[in-house]
Amino acid sequence: MTRLPRILCAVPQLPHVHLEIAKAIQTLWGQENEQTANRFVAKAAVDDPEHPGWPAHTPDRKGGEFRPKDGAFDSSSSVPGNGPRNEATGDVRVAMEPAIDPATGQPFSSETPLDRLGGGEGPGGGGGLGERSTSGSSEAATADAQGAGPPQIGAFTPPDNLTYGTTLFGNYAHEKIADLLGELYPGVTFKFRVLPGQRGIDVTVPNKSVGRVGYQFGEIKPRTPSGESAFNRQLQQWGVGPVQSISYDAAGNVYYGFH
Amino acid sequence: MDALDLLESHKYPEAVAACVRRLAVDPNDFGAMDTMASALQAIEKYEEALPLLERVGAHEKECKITPGHPGRQMDISCLYWFLGNRQKAIALMRGLVDGMLDGSIGYGDAAGGMQQGLLLYYMAVTARLSDQAACALDYMRNRLRRLQRLLPGLPIESWPVPVARYYLGDLAFDQLLVFATGQRELPQATAAAHAKLMSRRKLCVALFHDGVRSRANGAESQCLARMRECYALEDPLIEPEWYLARHEVERAAAKP
């Protein structure tokens, strides 16, 4: 422990280095505290179709407890948004400035290093499996270091008649997230997987734009434990990287990563 | 400035030079090839852009986690069109349509691969191939039905769905402008396009295909007027429609 200050003095005094150091410290010293506790004290997730739970602030202190699988509740109003939310309907809303890399404060460029991304054992992949879903981009790294949860990149308004966790909701979310990515990165020609259930990853970025976007592949999943598990399982099958997880919740908020 | 910055600043020769330097260091720098191909296309050096796009496309098709990726077939088709090989261009574009229908192509735009149908229609109308034009319109209907199956009872607005709906008579041009830019009148739509790249991309596509529709209806002068309006927009660097409009305008100007 006493060696740490000397190590810190030896590294360049750059913002993204500080963030990585903060992450490392959090990982090394914080894992026996809150994170470890959370690992073993599972709370029921509101939007988990397999093991649904009551949302936070539910009357009678039910929040976080498991609820009956067929117990209906208004999912669109039950999950508080974690970021700015415009209530305009029928459109996607951008919640971040993608052109600036928060780790460096500089615009993304085609030379932006990819070794900060999560996912994959291939060239450019960084970290182990556990990091893939939590810090798939520099924005996620920033948020993790600050303990702020995943960065919200935008939102869409789910129609009232859609139920989170259903195929229809997933189809709608995929369509809206495709629109959202277009709005976030208007200079990029994304390619999207056409049919749900098909093999293959959801989003691909052309070679020249990888530095701008910060990743080459993206996979869209519900922000649920099962969504995260499925993402990690697919990453193991694919065995390449880097892959950015893009998650959405019942309220239509869209994030990079799950946590 | 890196090569992509130079490209986006419309400094095309400088972008090419920067890519050449990168490729000298790493001959397999696909990002540099991709950027260089875009810059070469912007300065109408189509023959030089072609092998670069073929290499980038082949690389994209090889990726095992994106089975059915079409690579750069759409861009390559347009390059053949510019080079005067219309038969090859149409065959490649038709291949993108057929591939989507038979499932061999699994990636496309946010509307499930609508763009190749729109471009096939343009090529077919321009080359006066009525069977290909009918195929393109059928394909647009197919894509719309697919979206309606995926999202029953929900509004389907992913771009370029509104362009297909315009071709199919489901939308008026002012409604198409609203989808593209949020504005109903062209002057305001053009102003919106100057302010926002995504609006410019969409307006470029909307103007181009309104021109194609005029051509299909025999109104060639209206068609060229729309092509000129499309070409007058700043190059969004992405949409094949902008380059096709430039090609139309230049061909019209070259005619005696």
Top keywords for this entry?
heterodimer, A: 259 residues, alpha+beta, two-stranded antiparallel sheet, 8 helices, B: 256 residues, mainly alpha, 14 helices
Task: Give the SSE map.
The complex is a heterodimer of chains A (259) and B (256).
Chain A: H1 4-10, H2 15-40, H3 75-78, E1 92-94, E2 100-101, E3 106-107, H4 129-132, H5 138-146, E4 152-156, H6 167-184, E5 191-193, E6 203-204, H7 210-213, E7 217-222, H8 225-238, E8 243-248, E9 253-256
Parallel strand pairs in A: 7-8
Antiparallel strand pairs in A: 1-4, 2-3, 4-9, 5-6, 6-7, 8-9
Helix pairs in contact in A: 2-5
Chain B: H1 3-8, H2 12-25, H3 30-42, H4 46-62, H5 73-82, H6 86-102, E1 107-108, H7 115-126, H8 130-150, H9 161-167, H10 173-181, H11 186-195, H12 197-216, H13 220-232, H14 240-254
Structural class of chain A: alpha+beta
Sheet of most strands of chain B:
none
Rounded radius of gyration of chain B (Å): 18 Å
What form of chain B results from the Cα inertia axes? Answer: globular
Any overview of this molecule?
The complex is a heterodimer of chains A (259) and B (256). Chain A contains 8 helices and 9 strands. Chain A is an alpha+beta fold and 259 residues long. In chain A, strand 7, helix 8 and strand 8 form a beta-alpha-beta unit. In chain A, helix 2 (15-40) packs across helix 5 (138-146). In chain A, 45% of the residues are buried. Chain B contains 14 helices and 1 strand. Chain B has helices at residues 3-8, 12-25, 30-42, 46-62, 73-82, 86-102, 115-126, 130-150, 161-167, 173-181, 186-195, 197-216, 220-232, 240-254; one strand at 107-108. The longest helix of chain B is centred in the middle third of the chain and has 21 residues, at 130-150. The interface between A and B is large, with 41 and 50 residues. Strand 5 (191-193) of chain A pairs antiparallel with strand 1 (107-108) of chain B, so a sheet runs across the interface.
